[in-house]
Amino acid sequence: MAHRSPVVFKVDAVNEKEIPAGVGTGRPAAGRATNGVDAIDASPGGALLGVAPGQPGGPGEPAAGLSGIGRALAILGDRWVLLILQRAFLLHVRTFAGWRDQLGISESVLASRLKELVRYGIFEQKAYRDGRTRLEYRLTEAGLKLWSFLVAVHSWERDWADRPDLLTLMHDRCRHDARPYLACGACRKPMTARDTHTVRGPLATFSRVGLPRQHRRTTARGDVRTDYVGYCPLSMEILGDRWSTSVLAGAFLGVRRFVDFQSELGIAPSVLTDRLKRFVELGVLQADAGRHYRLTDRGLAYFEVFAFLVHWGQRELPGPPGSDLDITHKPCGSPLSPVLLCRHCHEVLERREVRFDLSAYPHLA
């Protein structure tokens, strides 16, 4: 077989090419701190990721009234959105027909997800002519910044979901398998959930449901296709559903008891029971006889993904003033600024210096 160069994982919002289709009471009072995943103080609570009623959020604004994290979960906590973004980055798909044929998604569902991605400023529409005027969807600057979040998902999945078949992420600078790990952008030291200290802003005294149900649950067990460029079912069950992602976020913020998850998230008991039970089955949470839930090593490792989600959401989709989480890296005292380092050369991975090696799939090269 003739040698083929790997397909480069470098996205340019202008010059990218499309690959042809077919190829509570468990939260601290306002201003109180939490240390990593330690237990947090008790005080009257409400929905974890919303803000108090009457706070700013103009008509037509995405997820008006939610915190930045709540807004990020409202768009990214969905299986189809994740797969659309993954194909946009890796295979440079940018047309309606391209995603429809790649993913086998219904046209109505695809149209609604693309509309949301445009509304949240992740995609922008551009007209082009192909016999007649058509629209394509290109990643905006805010959308391009999601690459580290998606790479973190891939990294966790490769390390913790028993997926040795996943694509290798190559670092062009050192020409080795990157095997990324999370570090603090200020001191460049490795960072875990236990290395962080969190303070909720004064408007993070929540009193309404933070995540409106806009779609049906899209992570029914067994319906997720596992392939070389897709996310495996384990990641999809964690990220591909807004309530599941919210439950995990609550666990990272120190929520432990069933009643506290229910109070913080405003979630129905039956839905919460299902999500907690499934997380225990997946080895992400462990439960004791008193219905206290704690993150396992596998769950704690997902902080890498959570850190990028929080960082992106609070900067690109900011909520009302005072609704943020103030997360600090305890060893150096710097605000959360997550970066991915190459495990071989320990340099920061930049979007234009990494690529997924698709040389084993010549029809995509």
UniProtKB/TrEMBL annotation:
Gene Ontology MF terms in the entry: DNA binding
Record domain HTH hxlR-type: where: 61-165, 229-321
Lineage of origin: Bacteria, Bacillati, Actinomycetota, Actinomycetes, Streptosporangiales
Keywords: DNA-binding, Transcription, Transcription regulation
Stored InterPro entries: HTH_HxlR, WH-like_DNA-bd_sf, WH_DNA-bd_sf
Record's protein name: Transcriptional regulator
